[in-house]
Amino acid sequence: MLPESTTVLIVGAGPAGLCCAVSLLAHGVKPADITVVDAQPAGLNLSRAIVIHAQTLEDLASIGAAEPIVARGFHSKYMRIQAQTTVLARANFPSLESYTQFPYALLISQADTEQLLLEKLKKQGVVIHRPCKVTDMHGSDDGLRVAFEGGEVMRARFVVGADGSRSTIRKLANIPFRDPSTGKDPHGQSQVETTEPYGFNSFAPLIIADVYLAGHIPPSVSLTDLNTFMSQYGYLLVAPLPAALDDPEGRTIFRLSCAAEPGAKEITKARLQQVLKASIGLPDEQTPIIDTILWSSTFRVKSAVADKFFQRLAGGVVALVGDAAHVHSPAGGQGMNLGLRDAVRLGEILADITRFDNTDATVSAKRAYIAERLGAFSDERRSMAIEVIKMTKLLTWMTGLQSVFARTARNIIWWLMGRTSLVNNGFAWRLSGLRPGTKAKQQ
Ligand SMILES: Cc1cc2nc3c(=O)[nH]c(=O)nc-3n(C[C@H](O)[C@H](O)[C@H](O)COP(=O)(O)OP(=O)(O)OC[C@H]3O[C@@H](n4cnc5c(N)ncnc54)[C@H](O)[C@@H]3O)c2cc1C
């Protein structure tokens, strides 16, 4: 049953919401002061995001949450960009060794990441209230009044909007959400397909599919690293993922992602096989066979960031994390990473704020402290989100080029650049999320 009041209400039990609760606990907030709700009757058992980068692992380690996640995932040393069997460039993650204890990209399904965070919360006595869908929220003298679909109303001092890209909390707090370059709300604009210079179709739907592969797997498809192939079909991501825990055969799952077939209503093995064959560029007997599609989905790339990540509503405070605060292309696997890092930071700041809130300080001193700490959080996280939006737009544009001339020119440029370790190491650095000045901790 939902409590009548709480100190921190986290709306959304996706990776960002769960991680924010873990961070609050790690920074000394008591389980009884945290309430987590989610609209869904059960967690989504879908892989969705599959990569966790070094800075995110560092942040998870700082709240004691990295160990089981690191143990479960594959440690990918490289993200290779290939034209058939030729490696054009590769993000060289081992080059991060002097800056992080995690010099790799961790390949793990989002469902596993969520499950491991959930287990940590359960052990510490935090339950997820489901299904509890927030429908309304108003500021009051002492906080916020939050209403649920079932008719319950809860008082909360702080509300964390971790409720995804169509965030109800963001809308109820009247925080605009828009593409930083066009100023448009991605959920408001019509999905008209547009063709941009050099044939890149910015609204073309993309496919993601988790599959089992059979037959021969050639050496050009790494069983431990991220593989991205460029071909006339655009890009094809082939990423190995740990076997499902309940699979007695322990079969490696492969995440495939590529452009959807124009006009097609469903994702078929035939289409995936066609793109795989063209991407790998080897005879049939050396090309893996798409054996089983375990899960698949189609989505369109959207980019947007909230105008601010915190808002005061009368005596209450709302803060945003994860997709509620920013969305962008999945290129480079940044989405969930940014959200987890927001959540770790917000947990730390809210823990400090709740401590100060319980002192004898004056109301105006408390208000000033909240404005200072959450204002800094908002500025820092928002500028990171804008950086990531820029980087992922560029990557999406480069991988989506369609004309033969543009593709050939791009491949030559990448091949030339990929001959220098400076570029390959720099690429790993950008993807990792590490900041200048970071040093690996002594183990
Ligand atoms: C098909 C698909 C594929 C993706 N692939 C990738 C990928 O390859 N790489 C990558 O980095 N990212 C990928 N993403 C994005 C990644 O999944 C998100 O960045 C990540 O899930 C964001 O986490 P979150 O916790 O912010 O939000 P979410 O995971 O969206 O969780 C939000 C939660 O809030 C709950 N909620 C919503 N509204 C309410 C309400 N009113 N009241 C209560 N609860 C509510 C929802 O039920 C949900 O559980 C993909 C997303 C999708 C949909």
Task: Walk me through the structure.
- The chain has 443 residues and is of the alpha+beta class.
- The chain folds into two domains: 5-73 and 109-185 and 303-399, FAD/NAD(P)-binding domain, CATH 3.50.50.60; 76-107 and 205-299 and 405-434, D-Amino Acid Oxidase, subunit A, domain 2 (D-Amino Acid Oxidase, Chain A, domain 2).
- The protein contains ten helices and 21 strands.
- The chain has helices spanning 15-26, 54-62, 66-72, 110-123, 168-172, 269-280, 335-357, 363-399, 404-417, 421-432, and strands at 5-11, 34-37, 51-52, 74-76, 78-83, 86-92, 105-107, 128-129, 134-140, 143-148, 153-161, 177-178, 206-214, 226-231, 234-241, 253-259, 289-299, 304-306, 310-313, 316-320, 326-327.
- The strands form four sheets. Strands 1, 2, 8, 9, 10, 11, 19 and 20 form an eight-stranded mixed β-sheet that branches.
- Helix 1 (15-26) packs parallel to helix 7.
- The protein is globular and about 75 Å long.
- The two termini are 43 Å apart.
- Mean pLDDT is 91; it is low at 190-202.
- Residues 11-17, 37-40, 48-50, 110, 133-134, 162-164, 168, 208, 297, 299, 322-324, 330, 333-336, 339 line the site of flavin-adenine dinucleotide.
